[in-house]
UniProtKB/TrEMBL annotation:
Coiled coil: none annotated. The keyword Transmembrane helix applies. The chain crosses the membrane at residues 50-69. This is FecR domain-containing protein.
Amino acid sequence: MMNNEQDDRFEKRLRFVARRYKEGSLDEDKAWERFAARQGIRRQVAFRRYWMVAASVVLLLIGFGTFYMKDRNNPEWVSVVTASGQLKDVYLPDSTLVSMAGNSTLRYDLKKYGKERRVVEMTGKVFFQVKRNEARPFSVHTALTEVTVLGTSFQVNEQPGVTQVNVVTGKVRFAAGEALEPAILTAGMSASYSDEKKEINIGTEEKPNDLSWKTKQLRFNDTPLEKVIEDLGDYYHVKITNKTGSPDSRLTATFNDLPLDEVLMVINQTLDIRLVSQAEK
């Protein structure tokens, strides 16, 4: 009964509106303006502000995303440099120990190091004791070559136009250019690459003093005098000259962290020669 009465009232109101409604007589925009004026609402301004705020948020998010992607891809270089005669030990993030001789440089990208590979760049003479990690090979890049290992100890001597590698323990892969077959070096082996000759040479001659800058020890075992002079010059960073004859002399001796003048005195007395450094007259 109640529903029928409500329906009748609704139908009467609908007929009343239909009799009095003229097409175009209801302007919804004006109606809204009158309502908004009474209520103190500024619809257009509020609507515009809403979209300005929304657009600002979107632009801010886009800018932040672009900055984040760019910043993530930018390298964060960590660089270490040694002066002439300076020796320095450096631990990399994975606990790999790097020993640097004088006039050497080392750098790596902190953001990428250890993510997929462990890559460092260097110049000069550097000895590496690499923390083993089979999932992330360790690579040393020089201007001309790349040395790749899993876990080992080796020295890289990078000079203009020439790179030399000496392996103390483990095994390394020594590569230079795409046209050359990489060399696999094991403990006790060495190899060098010359940019002039464009080839990798495997060393067969023992070089006990290649690490003397690190061990502070010079070892000679029936070594020709010419090689003795060369090793002394490299270790003490001076030019050694033979003021007497006897170029065929050979030396067997070991020197543990001795000053140059004492070493020269022992050699001169032992071989009955006269070796002098560049500073001597």
